[in-house]
Amino acid sequence: AQSVAQPEDQVNVAEGNPLTVKCTYSVSGNPYLFWYVQYPNRGLQFLLKYITGDNLVKGSYGFEAEFNKSQTSFHLKKPSALVSDSALYFCAVRPPWAGNNRKLIWGLGTSLAVNP
Amino acid sequence: DAGVIQSPRHEVTEMGQEVTLRCKPISGHDYLFWYRQTMMRGLELLIYFNNNVPIDDSGMPEDRFSAKMPNASFSTLKIQPSEPRDSAVYFCASTTGTQETQYFGPGTRLLVL
Question: Stretch B10-33: mean pLDDT, rounded?
């Protein structure tokens, strides 16, 4: 079965330190990969996506993610964390469905806490 | 653009009552998705539409749930009768077939007593 795993329920990091939120997937073919962020009591906001091309994707708020096909991973990174980055982060994958199928497979989310 | 608009933002109702959630997608978007988020089950896709036609409703929990999209700018998700276990945050999202990125509304927080 196709799936997305975010192996850490919670990540804690000190402000100013680099952060990594992990995502691995089990999907056949060449999927599209996404990261979204959810701040408390808000909807999900798009951060970045990988469709094709350079394996390092840059997105909003200084975040970036690296696509690793051999490890089937798409980890989210930021060189220097801010307290305001504290939120829930979701990884999502769109398999290469045929036709008009646009269904995403979602991870369960990782709660990021950045400590001052 | 105003983004995806959902109403109401909060709904408190009693078990057995009918609940209707509303969504206005971003203009020009031809895909619309309804999600439900709970602590226990995370983010679940309920149903999605393409050009106002339901494509996949396999996530709809049971017959108490129904969704419609009468035109490109409006969709409803109805729960009848509502039950306490339906308490959740319901999100609507939209996108285009080429853009792929889903844009989410602010959600409707539903509490069924």
Answer: 97
